[in-house]
Amino acid sequence: MTAPHPALFEHSPWVEERADARPSSGDRWTDLMAVVRSASGEEQLALIRAHPELAGKAAIDRTLTEASAAEQASAGLDRLTPEEYARFHQLNAAYRDRFGFPFIICVRLTDKAGILSAMEGRLANSRDMEIATAIGQIGEIVRLRLKDMA
To answer: Annotated active-site positions, please?
Structure first.
C-alpha cells in the first residue's frame, strides 16, 4: 500500500485513501483520477473548494501548502505588482461569485498572463463546464506532483 502524500491533493486525503483501498492498475495517477471521477458531485466540489485562490489571502498570510506556494511562485504569483494583485483579486471574486468555488489552473503549465487570460475567458463557461475543467486541472497538478516525487 502506498503511504499518503498530503501534498498531492489539497486537504483531501480521501482520494488517496480510496485509491489505496482499490486494486491498482499499475498507474498511480490513473488510479487517483478514477477515484476523483467516481466521487459524488458534492465530493468533487469539496475537492475543488479545498484549493486556494491564486494570489489570494492564503498566499499573503503564508497558509498555502508547501506545494501550492512553490507552484504559485513558479508562475510569478508571489511577485505581483499592486495592479496585478488587484486584477487577480477582482477576477477571483468574480469567478467565486459566479461558480461558488475557486478558479483552478495548473500554474506550472502557464504564466501570469496565461492565468489572467484563462480566468477572464473561463468566466463565460457554464458551471458544469467549469467543474469539469477544474477536475481536469487538478489532474494536471497531481500528475506533475507525482512526477516530482518519482
So the answer is: 51
